[in-house]
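User: For a teaching handout, I'd like to show students what a predicted protein-ligand complex looks like in token form. I'll give you the sequence and the SMILES for adenosine-5'-triphosphate. Please answer with just the structure.
Assistant: Understood, here is the input followed by the structure.
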Amino acid sequence: MLTVANLSKQFGEQSVLRDVSFSLEQGEVLAVLGRSGCGKTTLLKILAGLEMPTAGTLLLHGQDLRPVPPNERQMVYLYQEPLLFPHLTVFENVAFGLRIRNVAKAEINQQVQELLAELDLWEHAQKAPHQLSGGQRQRVSFGRALIIRPRLLLLDEPFGNLDAQTRADMQQLFLRVSRQHQITSLFVTHDSREALTVGTRFAYLDQGQLTSFASVGEFVQDARTAIRSELAFWENIQQKLE
Ligand SMILES: Nc1ncnc2c1ncn2[C@@H]1O[C@H](COP(=O)(O)OP(=O)(O)OP(=O)(O)O)[C@@H](O)[C@H]1O
């Protein structure tokens, strides 16, 4: 469905992405783990059409994406800070993408109602964004993205500003909803636990070079992901408790 081949990006002398290649099938979630400054945001921006690659090919359903403007790519880019219209209710924020596409009113009401129920937001439908918690705002932002059935969802540390419990709840919600709607996503995070929770495929990005793993086992075994050292840490604690 999505094929990225030999993608490179230079900012002046600096090589931010080097020969990045991967492919994704419908409904897969590629979890990209990487430390700050590794080039994650640049990769997502290139996919969204907000930056142009220096070299390489990008194909979505066989179509070359490079000449396609961002608003025609049918992708949604979700950041840490949910982007909501402050003057619109939760209902209207989610409905927005359908209203501008001139979908019939009854159809909009039904779809928004169903999605808000799915996202556990129905009781907040008439509130304004400033009356919501951070996790609720992020759920509205997720609803705005899902309602237009994006071909690709790009998530850039979307739960990074949330407390640990809300973050864990959001990961479960993301899993449930993306499975149900067969959403294809690229989910970048610096948290290995989050990557393991949300991913169906796994990659590691380091200084602009992407390593894709054939299995979750290979991802866990690669020393750069630091998952083995975390497991060792917890085993050590466990031994102390015994
Ligand atoms: N428009 C730009 N012009 C010049 N350099 C840039 C530009 N955008 C990004 N960079 C550089 O590219 C590198 C990667 O940036 P990027 O934003 O992709 O990192 P990141 O992996 O998302 O990091 P973080 O997790 O800290 O946001 C950085 O060294 C950054 O300074």
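For the handout, you might add this sentence: The CA atoms of residues 48 and 73 lie 7 Å apart.
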